[in-house]
Every structure is written in structure tokens, then in C-alpha cells.
Amino acid sequence: MKKCFLVILIILLFIPFLVSAQKQPSGISSSKERVVLVTVEKVSEGMSFPTMMITGSAYFSESSEVAAESAGKVLKVYVNEGDAVEIGQPLASLDDSLLSYSVSSAEASTKQAKSNLDKALRDFNRNKALYNQHSISQQKYQDSLTDYTNAQSMYISSLSQQKQLETQKDKMVIKSPLKGVVISKNVEVGEWVNSGGVVAGVATLTYEAKVYIPETVLPYIKAGQSVTVKTSRKEYTGKVLSINSKGDPATRLFLTRIDLGQDPDLKEGVFVIALIPSGSKIHSLLVPRDAVVERNSVKGVFKVSEDERVRFIPVKIIGYNGGYAAVSSVTEGSLKKDDQIVLDGNNAVNNGVKIKITSKIG
């Protein structure tokens, strides 16, 4: 009985809430319409190059496979892949114990040769003075001159041998020829390295894009020209370094190198898209690049209407002019000069969304 009474009591208490919910008018919303704060800019007109998107890859501007100049067993490895290095910084060293003995022996020989040279010089100077005083024969003077000349030759030869051995010993420490980063470590302690064997790979932290451009765009691009290059993460203003004069006869494509500068976010092998001029300048509508968005795989801009709502206008991108994209509207007349389009905030709006303009540009 107690359980039955509790159930009836709960039902009686809940009935007023049900009645109140049924009486609420259906046309009244429980929340206000969402309003998005945006910055807008006017559509302008100007001249721009039509462009072609050409894919390629990023590469180190300079890299080197550092080889050993002498053969030997690896004694130490000082770096790992990814380590930053300076010019002349040791990468690895080879066992130089035998060369050390040879250098010590050469140093002793050079020291003895210098001592012999000093003695020969003293004897020659003394005999020269005596000869000038007519106290010794010409033959004895000539003999002392010969001894001095021979001592000079012996000293020079010994010193050269010592320097050669010291250079060989110094080359047992393999050093970086570049300031940059280690991209490969090819040896381990205890391994034998032949002369010319690669010890490590190093590269600068400056990059360039390499793309192959078609013959048709050659009249519109030249070395020193600025072009836009995009990766999945960033956009760069690159400078054309060179256009290879020899193209592939089969494809009619020409290797083009574009300087991207120094950027720790870049890596060799990153996929890039270069926007290459493909024709003469044309008159077109100009919109900020940041105003162009993509909806359902269609590029377009959000145009502001008189009732402060936005409408998505599909556009065709013709080319680029600095920070602006040259466009034409897919539907004729749907976008024209002085139309206001959303700049900041365009990723938060959709067709028909109510907006509030916080700032106007142009």
C-alpha cells in the first residue's frame, strides 16, 4: 500500500509541469538567433597574372655527404641525426694512433734537421769570413756552402714530411663543411671506413622548391621573380632562383628552383604547390586571399547583403596579386566591385547567417 501511495503522489506532483509545457506557444523560440561578429572588406578591381598550380617538393638548398679522406677504424661518433652543427664541428674521428707515432718521429727528424741546418749556417758564415780574409781556400768555402745548401734541403724536406703527416692526422677527425643539421649518420664506433666512405650527411636549414614547369609558361616567368608557394601548413613568397635551359624532350617540362628561405617548420620532401604565372596580366576583381573559403569543395566568398546576412558566392580564381586573389564569379553579376565580403570570421558563417560588422576595410 505504501508503494502504491508514493507512485500516485509523484504522478499528481508532475501533472502541473506537463500542462504548463503543453500551453507554451509553439512559435516562441527558447534562445535568440546567433549573430557572428565579422570584419568586412570591399571588392576591388586591378591587374593580375593568371596562374597555374604546379606541384613539386621542398629540398635543402645545400647538403653534403661528408666522406673520410683517410681510411681507418671509427674511434668516436660525435653527432646523431637531427643535431645542429657548425662549420668545422667534428662529426666523427678515426683511430690515429699509428699516425701519431709517425708524427712524433717526423717531429724528431725535423728537430735534428733544424739543428744540422743551424750548425751548417754557422760554419758557412765563419768560412765565408775567413775566405774574405784569404785565410782558407776557395774549395773549403765552396764545401761549407754546399753543406749549408744540403742542410737547408734536408730541413725543408723533413718539415714537409712532418706537415703532411700532421695533415693526415688532422683528417682523421671528419668535420662538418656546413652550418646546419645532421640528416644521416652512416657509421658506428668500431666500424672500418675506407677513404671516400661517407661518415654523415649534413644540410643547411634553408630550403628551395623544385617544380617542373611546362613550355607554355616560359614567356611569363624569369629568374628573380617572386611567386607564391604553398605547403599544407604555410604559404611562402619565394624567389625564382633558376629555370633550367634544358628541358625533358618527352614532356617539355623545365626544372625550376624557387628559394623558400630558412624555416624550421619545413622539411625536405614536403609537398608544395607553386602558383606560376601562365599568361599576360588581365583586368579582374580582387578579393583578399583570406576572404576565399571552401564549402563542399567549392571555393567562394561570403557577400554581405543589405539585411546584414551573408550569402556564399562561388568564384573562380584566375590568379594572384600580392595578398589578393584575382577572381570571377561563377554566376555572372553575383559579385561586383565595392561589394562587401567577409574577411575575418568567414570560417564561422554559412548561408543566411546574421552578422554584426565590427570593422570595415576599404
Structure in a nutshell:
This protein is 25% helix and 40% strand. The chain is α+β, with helices and mostly antiparallel strands.
Helix-strand string: HEEEEEEHHEEEEEEEEEEEEEEEE
SSE-based structural type: alpha+beta
Please indicate the percent range of residues in DSSP E strands (runs of 2 or more): 35-45%
The residue-averaged pLDDT reads 87
Radius of gyration: 40 Å
Shape designation: elongated
So how many helices? Answer: 3
Instruction: Please give the number of β-strands.
Output: 22
Q: What separation lies between the terminal Cα atoms?
A: 79 Å
Helix content: 25-40%
Instruction: State the low-pLDDT regions, or none.
Output: 1-7, 14-30
Biggest β-sheet, characterized? 11 strands, antiparallel
Description:
With 362 residues, this protein is α+β, with helices and mostly antiparallel strands. The chain is built from three helices and 22 strands. It has helices at 2-23, 97-132, 138-170, and strands at 35-42, 44-60, 63-67, 72-77, 84-85, 90-94, 173-175, 180-185, 192-193, 198-203, 206-214, 226-230, 235-243, 253-262, 271-277, 282-288, 293-295, 298-304, 310-321, 324-329, 340-342, 354-361. The strands form four sheets. Strands 2, 11, 12, 13, 14, 15, 16, 17, 18, 19 and 20 form an eleven-stranded antiparallel β-sheet that branches. A four-stranded antiparallel β-sheet has the order 3-10-8-5, with no helix packed on it. Strands 7-6-4-9 form a four-stranded antiparallel β-sheet, with no helix packed on it. Helix 2 (97-132) runs antiparallel to helix 3 (138-170). The longest helix has 36 residues, at 97-132. The chain is elongated, with a radius of gyration of 40 Å. Residues 1-7 and 14-30 have low confidence and may be disordered.
